[in-house]
Amino acid sequence: MSVIEINKNNFEELVLKAEQPVLVDFWAPWCGYCRRIGPMLDQVAQQFEGRLVVGKINIDDEPQLADQYGVEVIPTLFLFRGGSAGEPIVNPGSKAQLIDWMGL
After folding, report:
1. Is position 31 annotated as part of the catalytic site?
2. Predicted pLDDT at 104
3. Where in the sequence is the domain holding 51, given as residue range(s)?
4. Residue 101: inside a domain
5. In this structure, is residue 10 part of a structural domain?
6. pTM of the full predicted structure?
């Protein structure tokens, strides 16, 4: 499965009510670090297909979601399980670091 776009209209259904864990990337198109980790997120989505959903929230389009989760620096990623967000990771340096943080 590819990375999905998440917004305020589908957040509850795709993230909070999801049966699988959901990795959510808070990002913006003007953010260089965000663009740098984009291919890594695509790889994680493919590697964990069927066990994990990977989604992106553009903070420029969805500032209320960013505020709700206290996102001040991007990229900030959260892993949601059972509708609850764990501790975030900010600007992961490698795919290995991200996978280790996810604990999957």
Report:
1. yes
2. 81
3. 4-78
4. no
5. yes
6. 0.95
User: 77-84 long-range CB contacts below 8 Å, 24 or more apart?
Assistant: 77/23, 77/24, 77/25, 77/26, 78/23, 78/24, 78/26, 79/21, 79/22, 79/23, 79/24, 80/15, 80/16, 80/18, 80/21, 80/22, 80/23, 80/24, 81/21, 83/15, 83/16, 83/17, 83/18
Confirm whether 68 is domain-assigned.
yes
Residue 65: give its domain's CATH number. 3.40.30.10
Asked whether residue 25 is assigned to any structural domain, the reply reads yes
User: Which residue out of 6, 31, 40, 74 is catalytically annotated?
Assistant: 31
pLDDT(60) > 80: yes
Of 14, 22, 23, 34, the catalytic one is: 34
93 is catalytic: no
pLDDT at 2: 87
- Is the pLDDT score of 22 beyond 90? yes
